[in-house]
Design a protein that fits this description.
GO terms for molecular function: metal ion binding; nucleic acid binding; poly(A)-specific ribonuclease activity. With 1320 residues, the protein is of the alpha+beta class. The protein contains 28 helices and 58 strands. Helices cover 19% and strands 25% of the residues.
């Protein structure tokens, strides 16, 4: 049976559509434009979406040929008129520009041909250029795998990699890589003949949905898990609610909740008839569309119905959600049959009301938002036509144009848009896959993970028979069954055995070697293969003839050096990536003071996303920003500015001790914008070291400045009354935030069309990116640019681009210019050295500086000096310990004068004692010293390189009649001498963040920071300024020139901060502590099921408010978020690679004195949004559900709320009593001064002895048995308080020796009972 459609093709009935009588299907008049009277009947194909109605057999047949359709897939609208009968009006000439009347079909034939499938080919494959001013054009059309037998049923862009997925009606899946659509993988996840309903990508694979089963596969095709069951029937759609929770729905009354971690069904949700055909979700609702034409909005947590939107009277074809807008397309019931609505129904989710519908010229079947600068949506019909509509109501030629796919009469069955909005993909039931883009070089995602490709087979290198330098290990071994002599078996009389001389030690090893007694230890640079010694061409004096006649070439000394440049550079030790070595005691046994001998605090690296440590330190050393962050406090649970203030407070209080940014990074992972920008990394991404840290930290810098500004900014009531998309200037009376005052500069952007119309727009810029000259490599090497030229062109740029002109009513070349109206106090610059050309530009500018010494030349000289030093170095004869009284005749030591004046000082040249009686080298002796250590040679090399730097140490900036003037101050002395004036603003370089590129470890980020006078006065008690190299928890003073010179071979600049010299005078540098006693007042629990009888604490009364010196007892319980990663060695030893990630789950604080001594006034269970892998119930007493706000009966609070309570107690000077408080405060991420900590584990401890458990101490001293079944924090805190009293009693009653004996008896008793209380 044939059915007429809008394209005239024959279509079989849809097996998934609702059943109704085809004889009653009719079409409404095309002249009626209302939601209830759509102009055209539906025309789905044989494999239309399961919610589409059946085809209309008696609809009037549409014309099969459109003379207006060009070969590039565009339908020109010549004069913008529509006559209501399905035809578009023509202009007076009847032809558009580029349309040839000689061609009856209106097609161009230049350079094109048709293949056997009827697909039009052009010079670059199956692609066509755009017509006129259209934004999107066809890039490729290919025949998908199995396209000759099955049509395409699902298409989807990969959300994590540059892949396009296609599933067909035969259950086959194929992925294509990049805009070239190179086939990446192809496999059969479903039985042959089973239609693929949906393809959904996740982080580690792809989810594939069929009628009655769902499979999770790797991108290469390997199966991860397969799911089917009695509830899996007639499934249509699935969606990810969070990274681990999947919802699966279909034409049934239940929705399956599926856990991706366990691979099992966890819940079955009732939805009622007619089920769910479409899933979309926002941050508030899960939107479910069904075949009855309505959209149901359900709660994200409870899945309860919140609102029902009755969009269409017939059925629903598709809908999409973006922000506060929901747009639907569907069918209406007219005269007992279904007809396509040529109106898009639009709803505002803020007020749950319908807006004015939008009329279309096509039959919409698929809808997708294009979230760009305006709310645009793409509507696609099954005939292969689509429109890009602006929901703001702006009519442009782009929004009026109708694009046409080259479907060759087939029906469009799938449609998707990439997350970057640069590409559209379509699939039809003819087996064709179409890719449309708005540019030639397209990216599917803004930040994609690298795609893993198969390794190419390694072929054995060709070896000449006369080549004596190729190692024999490169020749494969013979089979064992091969008998007889080998060709290499020389007779004995032709051989002579000699010992090979030991090769000299690599200078890189000597530079990093540490001598302990007489043994040297150094890391292996891994520049040579193991157990192989290369032949030396110099020793053999062999020269291999070159390929060209008469030419000679020396073979490299090492076979590993062939085909690659020698590795002359080396990353200095202080710049290398530092890692924490874990033992069975965890991180406590690691010596952080070895890496940081200053009083400034470093940041640890064992936390996810700790790559931003360098930028956190940069922000901390900006005095006004530090004060503004510590003065901020809001009620938002995950506020980055609040957490930044808490972190800065810890860095202030610490005197050289290490700190963690765990709470800040915990809040950072919950920010949706950070995840959308790709700033939140997974464990696997950080472990592999393949992340572009330079690009990542620049995006993080731009994000954090804007985020802190938004956090501090007070909400404006006017904003809620403005319509979406309306651009209005903020009221002038609103005071700027501290971030805006420091970083922001007012910029005027003017756009001038060539017709003379000019428009201006005012905006603010907080972070500037460097734009380098767009010139060729040869021009880069010819001309020398100053840094100030590049900076000026980046801040006040001018470019020509195509933009829409209202007067010309079309796109015109427009000149856009940026002019600064004000200068920022802090100039934040992203270097944007992302391409090889930009790196070459910076490197070339440095090389053009005077006194520049190339890096490879420096390292060559270093090696030569090192080899000379090792050959000429003589052993120093140490003086004999017995001096002139020595009686040994064979004594090898010196017996010269042994007076103190000849004895060298143990501090050497670093001695500062004026009355030192030991000998020191004079200046002349230092100059005459010819033997240099490798460390001295390296330092000399670095000093030589530091003589030339392209980046100035300071800047002078001024605005004169809207024109920006910038002058560079090359040296630090120039900045210090420059005087302040009203005309010129003087800036000095205060910090720079660099990417240290090291291939073996993936590189790391370091910061050069200039610590000002306020920081040294607080930390060191002196008035000085000093530059420091901050490498996570390693902090060391450095030379000021290291901040401006970059070798570019291993150190690449990423972020630069220039600050005004009078910055601290222009801003408030006082901290206004926002934490008051109100934080201790009673608060409501997050759990709605908590009852009054379940309250386990009594809040403090007004007269009980803590004072300095008061005593409280504290205990905390924890849960595990990530298990420990350890490595077991062949000798049986075990080493920790990554410690377990703990999170605080319960905090209890009890009164330490007064009539209610021992009564808790804080007993908070901490709610967490992260997945808990182990509740540690035996040791914590926390059970599953205690931390869930929906089912918990405990007093549940946020970590921030309880953190503020502890901060207030510490700021008041309250003393904390507890057992093992060091670990508790570390996990809570709270710094407590040592004089406020009373730890019972240290009170009853002898030096070099084990630490005693609280359970054993309670049994031994208090005769109490605690922790019998599980731990209870109230019981543990009370026990610690009683032990503290027992300690004071013993100290008062006993002498120090007697107390020492008491502890020894305790240890003896503990050894007898196995350190545990004996069983009753």
């Amino acid at each position: 049976m044939e059915f007429n459609t809008s394209t005239g093709g024959g279509m079989p009935p849809n097996p998934y559509a609702p059943h109704f009588s085809p004889a009653t299907a009719t079409t409404t008049s095309a002249s009626t434009f209302s939601p209830d009277a759509p102009p055209f009947a539906p025309s789905p194909g044989p494999h239309a979406p399961p919610f589409a109605p059946s085809p209309v057999p008696h609809a009037p047949q549409q014309p099969q040929h459109h003379p207006e359709i060009f070969v590039d897939g565009h339908v020109p609208i010549l004069d913008g008129s529509f006559n209501g009968s399905g035809d578009y009006g023509h202009n007076s000439s009847g032809f558009e520009e580029g349309f040839h009347p000689s061609d009856p079909n209106g097609q161009h034939h230049s350079g094109q041909h048709q293949d056997q499938h009827g697909i039009m080919h052009s010079g670059r494959g199956i692609s066509n250029p755009p017509v006129g001013n259209e934004e999107y054009h066809e890039l490729h059309t290919i025949v998908a795998d199995g396209g000759d037998r099955y049509g395409v049923s699902a298409v989807a862009f990969d959300l994590h990699q540059e892949l396009l997925w296609m599933g067909n009606q035969g259950g086959h899946v194929t992925s294509y890589y990049g805009p070239g659509m190179q086939k990446y993988s192809s496999f059969q996840p479903l039985p042959v003949g089973t239609e693929m309903r949906q393809v959904l990508s996740i982080d580690n694979g792809v989810l594939l949905l069929g009628n009655n089963r769902m499979r999770c596969s790797e991108r290469g095709g390997l199966t991860i898990f397969d799911f089917s069951g009695e509830d899996m029937h007639d499934m249509q759609v699935m969606t990810l609610v969070d990274p681990t929770t999947l919802l699966i729905g279909g034409h049934q009354d239940k929705v399956i909740e599926f856990d991706l971690n366990s691979g099992q069904q966890v819940n079955l949700l009732e939805v009622g008839d007619p089920g769910v055909a479409i899933f979309r979700h926002t941050n508030r609702f899960i939107c479910c569309g069904d075949t009855s034409g309505q959209v149901t909005l359900r709660d994200m947590n409870t899945f309860k119905v919140e609102h029902i939107l009755k969009a269409h009277s017939g059925s629903l074809s598709d809908f999409d959600v973006h922000g506060n807008l929901l747009v639907t397309a569907g069918f209406s019931t007219r005269r007992g049959s279904l007809a396509v609505d040529r109106f898009l129904m639009i709803y505002d989710l803020r007020v749950m009301r319908a807006m004015a519908p939008m009329q279309l010229s096509i039959d919409p079947m698929f809808l997708r938002f294009v979230p760009t600068y305006t709310p645009r949506i793409v509507a696609v019909s099954q005939a292969g036509q689509f429109q890009i509509l602006d929901l703001a109501g702006v009519m442009t030629p782009a929004s009026m144009a109708i694009h046409q796919l080259n479907t060759h009469g087939h029906m469009c069955m799938g449609f998707d848009i990439s997350t970057s909005c640069e590409a559209f993909s379509f699939g039809d039931n003819g087996g064709l896959l179409h890719l449309w883009t708005d540019r030639e070089e397209v990216l599917y995602n803004n930040y994609s993970h690298p795609t893993e490709f198969a390794d190419h087979p390694e072929h054995l290198p060709a070896m000449s028979i006369v080549d004596p330098l190729t190692p024999l290990a490169s020749i494969p071994m013979l089979y064992e069954n091969c008998h007889g002599p080998l060709l290499s078996d020389w007779p004995e009389d032709c051989m002579k055995y000699v010992k090979r001389r030991m090769p000299p030690i690599d200078p890189e090893i000597l530079a990093s070697m540490k001598v302990v007694q007489f043994i040297g230890y150094a890391p292996n640079p891994r520049v040579k293969k193991r157990n192989q010694v290369p032949y030396r061409a110099k020793d053999l004096a062999i020269t291999i003839p070159a390929t060209s006649p008469g030419a000679t070439s020396t073979v490299p000394e090492s076979p590993g050096a062939r085909g690659e440049s020698p590795r002359w550079y080396m990353v200095p030790k202080r710049y290398r990536k530092v890692e924490i070595k874990y033992t069975k005691l965890g991180v406590d046994s690691f010596d952080f003071r070895h890496y940081n001998r200053t009083n400034f605090a470093g940041l640890e690296t064992n936390i996810p996303n700790s790559y931003c440590n360098a930028m956190l330190q940069v922000l901390y050393f900006i005095e006004p920003l530090r004060c503004a962050a510590q003065s901020h406090l809001c009620e938002k649970e995950f506020c980055l500015t609040c957490e930044l203030g808490f972190l800065f407070h810890m860095l202030d209080m610490s005197k050289g001790e290490n700190c963690q940014a765990s709470n800040f990074l915990r809040a950072f992972r919950t920010i949706p914008e950070a995840s959308a920008l790709g700033l939140v990394l997974g464990d696997q991404e950080e472990a592999t070291g393949k992340v572009n840290l330079g690009r990542l930290i620049q995006s993080w810098n731009r994000f954090i400045v804007q985020q802190v500004h938004q956090d501090i900014q007070e909400p404006k009531e006017e904003d809620s009354e403005k319509k979406e998309g309306e651009e209005t200037e903020p009221p002038k009376e609103v005071e700027k935030t501290p971030i805006e005052k420091m970083f922001s500069s007012e910029v005027t952007i003017s756009s001038k069309c060539r017709c003379g119309k000019e428009t201006t727009k005012e905006t603010n810029s907080m972070v500037y990116g460097l734009n380098y000259p767009d010139i060729s490599d040869s021009e880069i090497k010819k001309k020398q640019y100053a840094f100030t030229e590049v900076l000026k062109s980046s801040m006040s740029s001018e470019q020509v681009t195509h933009a829409w002109c209202e007067d010309c009513n079309r796109y015109q070349p427009t000149t856009q210019s940026r002019k600064l109206k004000s200068l920022p106090d802090i100039l934040a610059i992203n270097c944007h050295l992302d391409s090889e050309r930009d790196l070459l530009f910076w490197k070339t500018q440095e090389e053009k500086m005077p006194n520049f010494v190339p890096w490879d030349q420096i390292m060559k000289q270093k090696e030569e000096n090192s080899s000379k030093a090792s050959s000429s170095q003589t052993r120093t004869v140490r003086p004999c310990r017995y001096g002139s009284h020595c009686t040994r005749s064979d004594c090898k030591f010196s017996h010269g004068p042994q007076d103190k004046e000849q004895t060298p000082c143990r501090y050497g040249d670093m001695c500062t004692r004026a009355d030192c009686k030991f000998s020191h080298r004079s200046t002349a002796e230092k100059q005459q010293a010819t033997v240099l250590s490798s460390a001295e040679i390296l330092e000399m090399s670095l000093q030589e390189e530091a003589q030339a730097h392209w980046l100035p140490c300071g800047l002078k900036m001024a605005l004169s009649d809207g024109e920006l003037k910038i002058e560079g101050l090359p040296e630090m002395e120039d900045v210090e001498k420059e005087k302040l004036s009203e005309e010129w603003a003087v800036y000095e370089l205060t910090s720079s963040v660099c990417h240290v590129q090291e291939s073996r470890l993936g590189g790391n980020l370091v910061a050069h920071i200039k610590a000002g006078i306020p920081y040294h006065k607080r930390k060191e008690g002196i008035t000085a300024t000093q530059w420091y190299l901050v490498n996570d928890f390693a902090i060391a003073p450095m030379d000021k020139l290291d901040a401006v010179q970059f070798g570019m071979a291993w150190k690449v600049p990423c972020v630069l901060y220039f600050s005004r010299k009078d910055l601290n005078k222009r801003h408030d540098c006082q901290i206004h502590n926002p934490i008051s006693e109100k934080v201790l007042f009673p608060e409501a629990s997050l759990s709605s099921r908590v009852l009054k009888r379940h309250i386990t604490f009594q809040p403090l009364a007004a007269e009980e408010m803590p004072k300095e010196g008061d005593l409280v007892a504290l205990d905390a319980e924890f849960v595990t978020l990530n298990q420990e990663e350890a490595e077991l060695h062949s000798d049986g030893t075990r080493s920790t690679i990554k410690p377990s990630h703990m999170s605080v789950a319960r905090i209890t604080v009890i009164r330490g004195q007064g009539p209610q001594e021992g009564t808790p006034f804080i007993d908070d269970y901490i709610s967490t949004q992260e997945q808990v892998v182990d509740y540690l119930t035996k040791f914590s007493g926390i059970k599953p559900g205690d931390l869930d706000a929906n089912i918990s009966s405990k007093h549940l609070t946020t970590l921030k709320s309880t953190y503020l309570k502890l901060r207030y107690l510490i700021d008041k000077g309250v003393k904390m009593v507890g057992h093992g408080l060091k670990k508790d405060f570390r996990v809570i991420n709270l710094f407590v001064p040592k004089d406020q900590i009373v730890d019972t584990v240290l009170l009853f401890h002898l030096t070099n002895k084990r630490m005693m458990s609280l359970r054993f101490l309670a049994w031994y001293f208090l005769k109490l048995r605690i922790q019998s079944d599980t731990h209870d924090s109230i019981e543990d805190a009370r026990t610690a308080l009683q032990l503290h009293k027992k300690f004071k009693q013993l100290k008062d009653e006993q002498e120090p020796d007697e107390f020492h004996k008491t502890l020894r008896k305790m240890y003896e008793e503990g050894r007898k009972v196995g350190w545990k209380p004996p069983d009753e």
